[in-house]
Amino acid sequence: MALRIVFMGTPEFSVPTLNALSQAGHTIVAAYSQPPRPGGRRGLELQKSPVHQAAENLGIPVFTPLNFKAEADRAAFRAHEADVAVVVAYGLLLPEAILTGTRLGCYNGHASLLPRWRGAAPIQRAIMAGDRETGMMVMKMDKGLDTGPVALTRRVAIGQDMTGGELHDALMQAGGPLMAEAMARLEVDNLPLTPQEEAGVVYAAKIDKGETRIDFSRPAAEVHNHIRALAPFPGAWFELPVAGRPERVKVLGSKLGDAAGVPGTVLGGEGLAIACKDGSVSLTRLQKAGGKPMDVSDFLRGTPVAAGTVIA
């Protein structure tokens, strides 16, 4: 007998899990997502979230409350008479009335190896810290921030040059089958829960725009991790002097090097290598403001950068 599920999610990251649950034969009685936001080329049109669109394509009714403070929204949630709620990157902290508003509670698909990287930006923070491994976890939600007991784990390796976008996609694809397995086991009362360890708790704070600028005075490994963690969005950046004026350039790819020099100085040789505190980084993919991403060879053909140039 299939479960009656309320699905709660917003971005593209959540969609494979919604699809996996639907394909597994469960009844998705409702989908909850963040309300449509201004978007489009002019930023004037209201755009539905990826989960909103995917749910409508599956014929699932969609609800978009700003929050669950109103009793009418809480009552509407309970009225679905769901067995369980599945939450993946929904974007709202759920009150206890929602956490207890289904027969079996709420289960969350979280993109880290809890208790490491609780919070808003676990993918980027794992790469910034130089972690070699992360994963998807299914946990039963409680009133805390990602503090509930864990049910299932799927580990994912982080390659030396892997970007935040690439890790996002790998975890996104791992999340669907993992949650489908968790719900299949929950359906037959065979989903054990393990409390999180008290040691090793680390919080993944939301990425602030103020921390996206590249600081080449840091060790090369930290600079490399910073660049790839923020690629492709929001993108780490530096300012390049062009015709006597600073021009902002996003860096969407880099590799570690061992050449030495004054931090922030362009080194000689092929490509675009920048000296750091300890070693160097070679920038492999860049994007000017308002331009398209391009490989470094194409970038340098249009914007030559001489050895010895100091960038900030």
Question: Which descriptors would you attach to this protein?
Answer:
312 residues, alpha/beta, seven-stranded mixed beta sheet, five-stranded antiparallel beta sheet, 8 helices, 16 strands, elongated
Task: Please provide a written account of the structure.
This protein has 312 residues and is α/β, with parallel strands linked by helices. The chain is 25% helix and 28% strand. It has helices at residues 15-23, 50-57, 71-78, 96-99, 122-128, 164-187, 220-229, 296-302, and strands at 4-9, 27-32, 37-39, 45-47, 62-63, 84-88, 106-110, 116-119, 133-140, 150-157, 202-204, 236-242, 245-257, 272-275, 280-288, 294-295. The strands form four sheets. Strands 5-2-1-6-7-9-10 form a seven-stranded mixed beta sheet. Helix 1 (15-23) links the parallel strand 1 and strand 2. The longest helix is centred in the middle third of the chain and has 24 residues, at 164-187. It is elongated, with a radius of gyration of 22 Å. 38% of the residues are buried.
What is the count of DSSP helices, taking H or I runs of 4+ residues? 8
Shape: elongated
- Residue share in β-strands: 25-35%
What's the story with the biggest beta sheet? 7 strands, mixed
Q: Based on the structure, what is the oligomeric state of the protein chains?
A: single chain
Computed CA radius of gyration, to the nearest angstrom = 22 Å
What is the share of helical residues? 10-25%
How many angstroms separate the termini?
Answer: 61 Å
Q: Based on DSSP secondary structure assignment, what is the total number of beta strands?
A: 16
**Average residue pLDDT:** 96
Q: Which secondary-structure class do the elements indicate?
A: alpha/beta
Order of helices and strands: EHEEEHEHEHEEHEEHEHEEEEEH
Stretches where pLDDT falls below 50 for ≥5 residues?
A: none
Strand order of the largest sheet: 5-2-1-6-7-9-10
